[in-house]
Amino acid sequence: MLTTAFTEMFGVRHPIVCGGMTGVGTARLIAAVADAGALGFLTALTQPTPEDLALEIKRCQDLTDQPFGVNLTILPTLRDVPYDEYRQVIVESGVGVVETAGSSPEPHLPDFKSAGIKVIHKAVTVRHALKAERLGVDAVSIDGFECAGHPGEEDVPGLVLIPAAAKQLTVPIIASGGFATGSGLVAALALGAAAINMGTRFVATTEAPVHDNVKQQIVANDERSTVVVFRKFRNSARVARNSISEEIAEIESRSGTAFADVAHLASGDRGRAAVLRDGDMEGGMWWAGQSQGLIDDVRSCSEVVSSIVDDAERIITGHLQEAVVSYGNE
């Protein structure tokens, strides 16, 4: 058993997180993650209304008696999002932990803290992580450039970003971006993190609510099978490589183009309907990280978590000592 500051703070068995994923972070997956001993997050804005979120939290509570949380991503959107109402549902639900992302969590912290809810904030730079710590979050999830989704604009990979954050932060750190194996977990712990966050690895599980074509494509893809789009618009996003994401990148490379020129291709509704639901792998843009190159099969959440923890323990107790020919004073 790997006990860290993260497992002790959040009351889970293993230092592994399944962070919020739009369209994917629903009750069946997150309950399976929780039962496997990791910490999973329902994605609040996957639910069309706050009332729907309340029902999804209840479904998850009916499926597992283990801890889980809710992700609240705070971003500009084309439609008004009733964030206060979503927050109130979370507070009233009895959930003990929230993952915030996007904009500053500051407006939401008083209500969460008064309800005794712990807050993990996702950041892509050390300076933003430090700001979140000053605001009073309980832990920080730091996203390296390898991650699916939005890695920021500074292109710092986890091998540098994680220890840079660990050097300055005092709250527990969750390492995110490029993690899918036991060796990755050991590396993250060695770099100063107390847990790892995995998204793409959990999409390639039997419980993930996506078409099997998506899961099999992740297994078939390698570490080169992603594209970073929206750089021109200062909203860089790592997505799976397909004809749609390559077309977006090509349009973006032209002089004078704006987001409006790719919006029809980049639509989240289009990607979720065509790819995640119908399995048309060329039907829309979909999110995946470079960790695709480390994923060789589709397993249950229980098998994924146990294999990662078992491999990590084996590496810590045996392989590392075998790899070092000698150490100490000569």
Description:
The chain has 330 residues and is α/β, with parallel strands linked by helices. Helix content is 42%, strand content 14%. The protein has 14 helices and 10 strands. The strands form 2 sheets. An 8-stranded parallel β-barrel has the order 1-2-3-4-5-6-7-8, surrounded by 5 helices. α3 links the parallel β2 (39-43) and β3 (69-74). It is globular.
Biggest β-sheet, characterized?
8 strands, parallel, barrel
Helices, by number, come to: 14
- Level of helix content? 40-55%
The CATH class of the largest domain is: Alpha Beta
Q: In percent, how much strand structure appears in the residues? A: 5-15%
Which whole number gives the mean pLDDT? 95
- Report the C-alpha radius of gyration, rounded: 19 Å
Order of helical and strand elements: HEHEHEHEHEHEHEHEHHEEHHHH
Question: Order of strands across the widest beta sheet?
Answer: 1-2-3-4-5-6-7-8
